[in-house]
Amino acid sequence: MTFELKILGSASATPVLARHPTAQMLTVGASNYLIDCGEGTQWRMLEYRVRPHHLRAIFISHLHGDHYFGLFGLLGTMHLQGRTQPLHIIGPPGLDEVLLTQARVSDMKLGFTMDFTIVDTEVHAVVYEDEQLTVTSLPMRHRVPCAGYLFAEKPRRANLLKEKLPDGLSPQQLARLAQGEDLEPDEQQPGLRHADVAGPLPTPRRYAFFSDTLYTPALADLIRGVDLLYHEATFLEELRDRAAQTHHSTARQAAQIAQAADVKHLLLGHFSSRYKSLEPLLLEAQAVFPTAELAAEGLAVKL
Hints:
By secondary structure, the protein is α/β, with parallel strands linked by helices. It has helices at about 40-45, 70-80, 95-105, 170-180, 240-245, 250-260, 280-285, and strands spanning about 5-10, 25-30, 30-35, 55-60, 85-90, 115-120, 125-130, 135-140, 145-155, 205-210, 230, 265-270, 295, 300. It has a 7-stranded mixed β-sheet.
């Protein structure tokens, strides 16, 4: 089953040519989950052919504009395109008030309901769950209430191995085996255990999204061993004091978190507009975590 992260935007608050405010799309199976929604996100979705009607949930980290100013426009587009199924929106206190006020004063009566989950940004807790994922909040340290998110895939069934399947099984029997059931013995066959005709259980995949935050080493314990970590890297280490003043992190600090948490792969993002070239940020992180990569627009990471 697909588990893919697509980067729609990698910039911080000030506009920069060819970089866009924070937005990411996580695709699991046939479902899409939007993570932050900076200004212009729906244009990036058009560019990368991500269909809004496949959205199951939207996760907003905090209420600084570069992380959610594109949301109301996206909601309006989904309404105009005829969406009727409810949409889960997960975010910090005040997000529901902002969106409902915008809808009221613009007299926009959406054709679907918004199912809000208000996140306590100071705790690590489950904030969303469906048949594919469990999502928990990660407490960030920023100037306003801010949460990161840990997306954990639920255990999947092992795939059937064709070479282990006996001849003569009916489509119904194959379907039951594919669902993880055992077949009871009957007149045609002596019974068959799913475990005897299936491969090893797939390892569940996990993705951690760190939004704007001070360098917080304790967060490493909450994401230990994840397959992929996105961590903001607004500044170079030479501006470490500036990062602390603005409640952001440096590229080196992001790499230190990844190293301490023993993650498999690190993406850097939320780059300050002062950096016309991003290579120094990448090199700084790779000195600590050699496989670090830039979360450039259009990048797709499959797990």
